[in-house]
Amino acid sequence: MNQRVLITAGAAGIGLVMARTFAATGAEVWVTDVDEAVLKTVPAGIRASRVNASDEVEMAAFFKEVKEIWGGVDVLCANAGIKGPTASVEEMPLEEWRDCIAVNLDGAMLAAKHASPLMKAQGKGVILFTSSTAGLYGFPYRAPYAAAKWAVIGLMKTVAMELGPHGIRANAIAPGSVTGPRIDRVFHAEADAKGMTYEAVRDGYAAGTALGKLSDPEDIANMAVFLASDAARMVSGQVLTVDGFTINPDPKV
């Protein structure tokens, strides 16, 4: 049977590239997103549903639908996340802090919470959390994002321990800076916060890696496909960075 792959925030960006990459392997793919406009652009053959990943009522209803239509799920990519505010801690708006934590951390927990019973019933499954190198090093002016991504790693390791006896593996992928519109917005915001140009911030992040360049969404998607495969059957509880090896997490140029 082809894998049944569920991807939260899978209608755009890294999530959409994951969806296309899994679909290319023959998997059945179902994506969620809160943006109805981008959901309409999801390629034919990939299921798409509007779901707020941080809303438990919506997530519970969605997983009920997944059970009714698919009967279970083999791979969960808990990918929902937002960049959150760009500000120093002393100027951080509490409400924006909470919004960022809700999507990045609560969304990951709710996805794992509701996928777990389906995977336990079938005696197998793979849960992949999207963390970030911000969850390894910290991220100046992005405290709620960094805090949430650190917490996602703790969540992942706990899930791996709890569900391992049921044949379920859990890992986290930690991308560095990944090319695309989202990181461009981050670079512009950081440039404004630091009084730098967009180009200087972008080039500084690229120079902060051993390979001297930013990752592409396909690099993240390929790692997800590997971790979901039998080739990674003994890989669980791990953080896999896909960042060209960050050697300077806070470049100043």
UniProtKB/TrEMBL annotation:
InterPro entries (alphabetical): NAD(P)-bd_dom_sf, Sc_DH/Rdtase_CS, SDR_fam
* UniProt signal peptide: 1-23
- Keyword tags: Oxidoreductase, Signal
Pfam families, per database record: adh_short_C2
Check the record and name the SUPFAM superfamilies matching this protein: NAD(P)-binding Rossmann-fold domains
Question: By its UniProt entry, which CDD domains does this protein fall under?
Answer: SDR_c (cd05233)
What family is this?
A: Belongs to the short-chain dehydrogenases/reductases (SDR) family.
User: What's the protein name?
Assistant: SDR family oxidoreductase
